[in-house]
Write a structure and sequence with these properties.
The complex is a heterotrimer. By secondary structure, chain A is of the alpha/beta class. Helix content of chain A is 31%, strand content 15%. The chains are: A alpha/beta, B alpha/beta, C alpha/beta. Chains in contact: A-B, A-C, B-C.
Amino acid sequence: MKQLSERIKEAAFGSLSSGQVEMVIGWQKGPLWWQSFPAFITDPGETASLIWDPFSVSNLNKYLLNEVPKKKIALFLKGCDALGFNQLLRDGRVEREKVLLFGIPCDGLVDPARVEATGLSKGLLQVKKEREELVFYYKEGQRKAPARDFYYSKCLSCRYPNPVTCDEMLGEAVPCQPLERFANVSKLEAASLEERFTYWSRHFSRCIRCFACRNVCPACSCRECIFDIAEPRWLGKAKESGETLFYHITRAYHVAGRCVDCGECARICPLGIPLAELNRKFIKDINELYGEYDAGADLDKEAPLLTFKSDDPDVSA
Amino acid sequence: MKRIGVFVCWCGTNIANTVNIEAVTEAAGKMPGVVYAGNYKYMCSEIGQSKIKSAIIREKLDRFVVASCSPRMHESTFRKTAAAAGLNPYLVEIANIREHCSWVHKNKGEATAKAIALIRAAVAKAARDKELWATQIPVEHRALVIGGGIGGIQAALDIADAGFEVDLVERTPSIGGHMAQLDKTFPTLDCSACILTPKMGEAASHPKITLYTYSEVEKVDGYVGNFEATIRKKARSVDLEKCTGCGICWEKCPSRVKSEFDEALSMRKAIYIPFPQAVPNVPVIDRASCRWFTREKCGICRKTCPAGAVNFDQEDEVLQKKYGAIVVATGFDVLDLDDFGEYSYGKHPDVLTSLEFERILNSSGPTGGRLLRPSNQSPPKNVVFIQCVGSRDKSRGKPYCSKICCMYSAKHVILFKEKYPEAQAYVFYIDIRTAGKDFEEFHRRAVEEYGALYLKGSAGKVFPDGDKLLVKGVDSLSGHALEIEADMVVLATAIKAKSDAPQLARLLGISTDTHAFFMEAHPKLRPVEAHTAGIFLAGACQGPKDIPETVSQASGAAAKAIVLLSKENLLSDPCVSEVNESLCTGCLACIKVCPYSAITEKTIEEKIHGKALQRRVAEVNVALCQGCGSCTVSCRPGAVNLKGFTNEQIMAEVDAICL
Amino acid sequence: MSVNLKQGPFEPLIIAFCCNWCSYAGGDLAGTGRMTYPANVRVIRVPCSSCVSSNFILRAFQRGADGVVVAGCHPGDCHYTSGNYFARRRFLLLQRFLEFLGMEPERFQVHWISASEGNRFAAVMTETTEKIRALGPNRKLRDTR
């Protein structure tokens, strides 16, 4: 990890000082052990503050949508971010010539909640990764534990730890050992209708409609989102279960066939709603009905909802 | 505030018997935006319509709803009523309270409640109706015909005879196509050249037709009525004007290459006309095999040309021309037999495709019409014809029936037997398909008069045996395995789409089916039109066809083109999609679902925080859009909207109908 | 909610989006042939089944529909050639998704009804109404306001 941090700084410094790019988007450490925030750096002198640590989870590529660069912008992509980048590219939201992509192989990132759950967070100053282990630093010393025990669940089922696209890869490719990603979907499918309804209504009842799941999503990049449009008012403002359901169905439906399964929606949700399962239901069905399709990775295939076969399975009852 | 009128029709007793008209009228009068509600016995009658017109004026209505029969019945009637009263005709909505209500329900209370709900939805929709205007699109009165086979020639002649200019573009040095290669035609056995060459001559001399042979269409822009095509006239190296077609050049030319026209069964020169009746009768230099162009030696043709027509410096010429309509008649290819090794095709000279056999039969073909075995120039005694080579064959060939093989094989049998009455013809077939005028009779003649032995079954293998060919097959009717000693084997090779058909389809913005044949707009009702308005299809480029079918379709395509070309302006239906550029993100999903290639991308510039920013958005060509609305659903933020059925309108209908 | 009489037995509200060229015409033919079906069904005319957005379907449920039917030309017969092929994919995914969330699958149905199938139109609408009547009111996707 240390080494990668160094390479990130070098790459940022090199591309900025050579004038190749006008800005670098990376991560900087926040005041607390679990805080690694997106950073926007234009001064080569500031590149030393960039880091790569087990909390560099934010996907940086959606910040590109705010920028109108004259030259290029450099940014760092993990495996999941690269898929999202490809989706933005396909949606015509970023210009490939306007970015310099540094790829970061990543075998998983740490979920602070899991650290807290084990009690290791008390007095914790810093967490570092050393090979397969996490090292927890305290005033009085350090402790070690297997890193994978603390990874986000989205990382445990990650199928593309190494970026599928970039201009320069920083670091060695890491092995891929994903857990079955449809396990929860299959489990729910096996449950009864009423069980499923109860399961989802309990989750959705917590939704505060902060739209974080949409905002973080690399497949949600509309200039103006259907949920924000006033005329027609598709989504009502009231805190109302029907409206919330409309929101969640429509959000998932809009990314059907486009969702890269980066898991950011579920990761970002402050209420812990398992949003990725909604997306995965669509992915699973698409794979079963229309053939395997990996948004963000299958660049030569047409998006499944923008094509058809005359002998597709029928929908008629 | 809108001023909506509602007119409830009794339709005599058709509606009034089941729906409480008074209750409905009263309810309608209270709906939001409604300032007048009335009813009458027959709203569609003259009196009914004048009641609407006077109410429009008296009540200052700015839109209205008619609650009556299906809009499929009288929507156009009431739109005219609106226009007559000075209202835009698209400010009218119909609530179908007859077919969808009074005729299908018996309970008066239920039917009345439903009628009110249907009217409420129509009122909600009408409140969001906007004035719509049909756009006028000027028409360029010239047609482009791509492909100079019999289909293209026929289409060009028909369009030209109607008085419109036609440019006929043909890739090879001469028009004529596959039909020029044929000896006789079924089921009449007319000489193919005898019926084709007059048409070729007619096309060449027609004052309205311009031939562009040895030319290709490189690019097509624009849309119905206003296409702009880029045509590359490849350098012939011979001046079309000066050349007299005397033939000295190709007599003297020392380079010999395989003749495409003779299916490689004979040699042609580097400067050549593909066949004696070629139109234009002006040679081209095949620069790839010409000694001047490959080695800068020779130049005999230039030296010997009495007209001084040979011009080695000639360059490709690129033309840009405008057209109102395009007819595509690019024909077919014959399936490549690489995957059919069992027939020894390509390994033994006496195994031929049907088209090669056709050339051998042809009196102007490589053998001068003498039917002899290519291996030793001896007369054949036994000839085996194998049907469905690559047709109706899902695994290695094409799943479809090539349609013409049964008939041309019967023709081949007859022509063969005419030459050698003592010889024997065998035909291996799966089924014999002779659906066509005089086709079955023709086939029966081959069997009964000419004694061809038709064997239902497959010929599994052909291999050389001494100086003969041994054909192993099965007669599936008797179940016997057969071994036939043949002098020649003729393979009825499948027809396939031109190998570059997908490229042409992309260039024209039309679609192809799974076998790369061009898709018609509707398989039953619009069989000669492509999806893209203004582009028409003729002949085998749309699917396997024989000559009469090709000619019929060509005339059909021509008639459609003439209808289009004879208009000064096209009126486009205003119920088409439109793009709200400020909402459009430029993902262009809409382009993918549009069946008419009516959506394209364009770049717009806008200022954001003082910076000029270019971005791409979708743009609808109103001349091409047919108003299906598929694009509206593909658009996540709702930036594409279908006029007449906008998102706002359908949503308002849903809200109103559920109340 | 007008069909739902405030008191008395449950009467479902069925909204049917019908394509102009096939299914709406099929509905017209049902009328011409006086083939009765329950008045619970209310039709909204659209150009093509591919023009029916999930937004409209969900909106109908929110506003009180107990069942929604989308009806279009048979696959292969679309007036616009390919619209219903796209619709078929969109709706099959939506149908399975709604079921995944715990919605009764009968509530959202897609049918291919040609312009000549008036009897089928009536049969589909009757059958759908009866199925939904048996299921009871839609409470899951409905606005509770």
